[in-house]
Amino acid sequence: MAQDDVFKKLVSHCKEYGFVFQSSEIYDGLSAVYDYGQMGVELKNNIKKYWWDSMVLLHENVVGIDSAIFMHPTIWKASGHVDAFNDPLIDNKDSKKRYRADVLIEDHLAKYDEKIGKEVQKAAKRFGDQFDEAMFRETNPRVQENLQKRDEIHARFAKALNDNNLEDLRQIILDCEIVCPISGTRNWTEVRQFNLMFSTEMGSTADGAMKVYLRPETAQGIFVNFLNVQKTGRMKIPFGIAQIGKAFRNEIVARQFIFRMREFEQMEMQFFVAPGEELQWFEHWKQFRMKWHQALGFGAEKYRFHDHDKLAHYANAATDVEFEMPFGFKEVEGIHSRTDFDLSQHEKYSGKKIQYFDPEQGKSYVPYVVETSIGVDRMFLSILAGSYHEEILERGEIRVLLKLPPTLAPVKLAILPLVKKDGLAEKAREIMDDLKFSFACQYDEKDSIGKRYRRQDAIGTPFCATIDHQTLEDNTVTIRYRDTMEQERVSIDSLQQTISEKTDMKNLLKQLAV
């Protein structure tokens, strides 16, 4: 199945089964803004708990805060967002559509990767077990030709980004003959910078109103509270501050469903270290964060690191964790060594001393910072993409299921009476009322048992308990496993322990503690 088709089915699945809805849909929707439905909010909350517990529970030197969305406007001047928080945009004169120039070039580069990948796949099929991929990549003329073209474009692209040379970005688009996906033409405007921050006014009168911004990231709320947390918590460097919260960006080129939105949620941790130790901590958190992703079980090949071509003005190292979405490898998390830029800037603009006295060194200094920043919505999308499966059963029936990690699944156990009569529904309700205190359960008595299994498969429920006439005789139920469709008989008394053991968050966290 084509990747575009997979993505379209995934978006449709999210709507049909209550994961994600278009915001304000009855008013024809609001572009790049989405609401999470009854299943989506449960999955989202489980993702956030997995992240929070992996940071705060597993690390004695990491604590959390929840800072306000509205902040003093000078904060965004100090952080550089007022002057430098821009995207390079280009318009197609025929379609009147606007695009990010860097994304157009990145998508063009990805086409060379796809060509190389196809050559490798064809060769692997042809040579079978004897295939040496590394040798093939180094010696095949077509692979080498595509690789050379890609590297040449990439070098020009990286230089243009680092030099902030908008003319060169446009020239690359022209030289590569990149066309507008809508019009199919190369009738491009100049590249311009566009600031992404939303602004509003705070105050009761027009004359006394102060211009404020909706925060474009959650990190600054951590930086301005550095001393508050450090002193009240008696924190010693190295230590981290974690936060989950909403952020807002006026994305002109919002696309790919919930991958790029105007209102989104971030999970960020800023780790404060002594100057000179930032790069070793950067490596530490880089490895830990990759381990966090891979613990979900989608396969190590689904993830990769991507080092930045252009470092932000405040960074001395930066990499992304990318996941293979239906539309290619895309960033879900960034790990950055931010040096002492943020705290130094806030010290300068606020006029307040923001330093840490190190008793071991006997001196005060502005700490350096290593950041891990992950988008909840992108993580949500990556988990759905990794979980979505279609299987063809014996009679040609297509079974659609989400192989969600049991810990993250919105519903852990579906309780299904075989029929609504003969006291089975009452017994099922009794089981439901007992287990709902332990984990998320769903009761369903409508339609045939087969259809009910399919519904639970589609929302990713890992276990179903069927109550039948034998249940009334020996107090046992049939447990049906989502991924294999295998069934086994267990006692009602052991049901709570069986499901709890398989869905406990500790199963994931223990993998990270090794």
TrEMBL record:
Task: Tell me the enzyme class.
Answer: ligase
> CDD domains of this UniProt entry?
GlyRS-like_core (cd00774), GlyRS_anticodon (cd00858)
Q: GO MF terms on file?
A: ATP binding; bis(5'-nucleosyl)-tetraphosphatase (asymmetrical) activity; glycine-tRNA ligase activity
Q: What InterPro entries does UniProt report for this protein, alphabetically?
A: aa-tRNA-synt_IIb (IPR002314), aa-tRNA-synth_II (IPR006195), aa-tRNA-synth_II/BPL/LPL (IPR045864), Anticodon-bd (IPR004154), Anticodon-bd_dom_sf (IPR036621), Gly-tRNA_synthase/POLG2 (IPR027031), Gly_tRNA_ligase_bac (IPR022961), GlyRS-like_core (IPR033731)
Show the SUPFAM superfamilies listed in the entry.
Class II aaRS ABD-related, Class II aaRS and biotin synthetases
Keywords annotated in UniProt: Aminoacyl-tRNA synthetase, ATP-binding, Cytoplasm, Ligase, Nucleotide-binding, Protein biosynthesis
Q: Which NCBIfam families match?
A: glyS_dimeric, PRK04173.1
Q: Please report which protein family the annotation says this sequence is part of.
A: Belongs to the class-II aminoacyl-tRNA synthetase family.
Name the HAMAP family on file.
Gly_tRNA_synth_B
What does this chain do?
Catalyzes the attachment of glycine to tRNA(Gly).
What name does this protein carry?
Glycine--tRNA ligase
Native organism is Proteiniphilum saccharofermentans
